[in-house]
Amino acid sequence: MIIRSVNYVGSFSKEEDCPKEEIPEFAFIGRSNVGKSSLINMLCGKKDLVKVSQTPGKTRTINFFRVNDAMHFVDLPGYGYAKISQQERSRFEKMIFEYLAKRQQLQCVFVLIDSRHTPQQLDLDFVNRLGELQIPFALLFTKADKQGRSTTDKHIALFKKEMLKSWEALPQLFVTSAVTKLGREQLLAFIEKIAKRAD
Ligand SMILES: Nc1nc2c(ncn2[C@@H]2O[C@H](COP(=O)(O)OP(=O)(O)OP(=O)(O)O)[C@@H](O)[C@H]2O)c(=O)[nH]1
Ligand SMILES: [Mg+2]
Predict the structure, then answer these.
(1) What does pTM read for this prediction?
(2) Higher pLDDT, 80 or 128
(3) How many domains does the chain divide into?
(4) Average pLDDT of every residue of the chain
(5) Is 47 in the pocket of ligand 1 (CB under 6 A)?
(6) Domain-embedded: residue 69
(7) Which ligand gives the minimal distance to the CA of 79?
């Protein structure tokens, strides 16, 4: 898929305020600071379409981008950010799960996982909740430029092993880097295929 145009649509704090238009939608989710906003910028070929920050918890709303006038990319706030109050954290969680559960147009959720780490319970829990809600998802292992391929592969193998304890089949999986653009072509081809199927 070639990105011809990307337009910022708006930022929303509840699912019911999100655009009603029924075009295929792809959401990006993952723990705070995993690289969601950077990945959307990388996919769209724009440096600062979405704000990126050193400080976790940067994205606090559901942000819509219209791609090629044919689909939406959605940047979601991170989960599991420790430095906000319990009250605020549950507000974020409610916002994310309401969006995920209600959104009919949602074709696939990209769950971003930091490839530098061994499997984190928080990510496994999140993936299991998606399973319970029967929401289609794929896994993206981010920041692969930060270490050698063998370390990335080892962390991916461990994640798969953890998942296979409760899942019969594994989702589609991609290795990405917002710095080297690794995974961009594969991911865009995957998105195009799903968007076509949804038409
Ligand atoms: N080396 C490297 N750094 C990355 C990559 N992706 C993101 N980063 C850095 O990681 C930090 C967080 O990136 P963001 O894109 O803001 O992460 P986020 O998941 O949107 O964060 P929140 O919105 O706070 O949940 C920034 O300092 C980015 O520059 C990557 O692929 N490689
Ligand atoms: Mg962000």
Answers:
(1) 0.94
(2) 128
(3) 1
(4) 92
(5) no
(6) yes
(7) 1
